[in-house]
Amino acid sequence: MDKPLETIIVDSILDAIADQRLRAGTKLGEQALSDLFACNRAQVRRSLAALTAYQVVDHLPNRGAYVATPTPDDARDIFQARRAIETVICRNVVRLATQGDIAALREHLRQEQAAKGSDNRPVAVRLSRGFHVMLGRIGRNPVLARYLEELTMRSSLIIGLYAKGHATLCAEDEHARIVDAIESRDEAEAQRLLDEHLRHIEAGISFDDDKPQTGALSAMLRGIRD
């Protein structure tokens, strides 16, 4: 089944942020997005409302929507929350994952490696986030899964804006080692590897460098639907 258009717009904007095409403070004009996605402005408004709810877009009265500007404190808080929530999710996954779930995770790993091998960073970042969202679903706690989805969206914004080059793309075997531990039902090891993985991502973020000024939205959105 095809995704709803609003979901496509949300995912596309997140991908553009992760690929460092959309940066903090970029105005997300309704008309520009309507033209890009061949849709009406009401659909764009619903998409921007969803992104605002996830705190990756700020909506300023009488000024419109802008890509949010997270602070270093925001980044620390988000990754601390992720470590706390994903530790519990990981425990649930180890205890509840079926062989079908393991097979789905292995297939996802294959797709991640293919994206890295083709040097397709936007797809690799999207799949990296998708791995964690999959764990949330497999953990079978919809409340935690919903919180994790929000946190991974906000993480995508921070990674896209402040990553040191490709530093926050996962090391070759980080996700694979987590899946190995899950399949072995080694709860302590899976949790340790996941914590180490999240700390590695956080270590690849730097707020020290000057960020490029924002430019024309149309230029930054070029290729957003590829």
Structure summary:
By secondary structure, the protein is mostly helical. It is built from ten helices and two strands. A hairpin with a 3-residue loop joins strand 1 and strand 2.
Main attributes of the structure:
single chain, two-stranded antiparallel sheet, Arc Repressor Mutant, subunit A, 2 domains, 4% strand, mainly alpha, 66% helix, 226 residues, Four Helix Bundle (Hemerythrin (Met), subunit A), 10 helices, 2 strands
Describe the structure.
- The chain is mainly α and 226 residues long.
- The protein folds into two domains: 5-69 and 209-220, Winged helix-like DNA-binding domain superfamily/Winged helix DNA-binding domain (Arc Repressor Mutant, subunit A, Orthogonal Bundle), CATH 1.10.10; 72-203, Four Helix Bundle (Hemerythrin (Met), subunit A) (Up-down Bundle), CATH 1.20.120.
- 66% of the residues lie in helices and 4% in strands.
- The protein has a two-stranded antiparallel ribbon with strand order 1-2.
- The longest helix has 25 residues, at 72-96.
- The chain is globular.
- The mean pLDDT is 87.
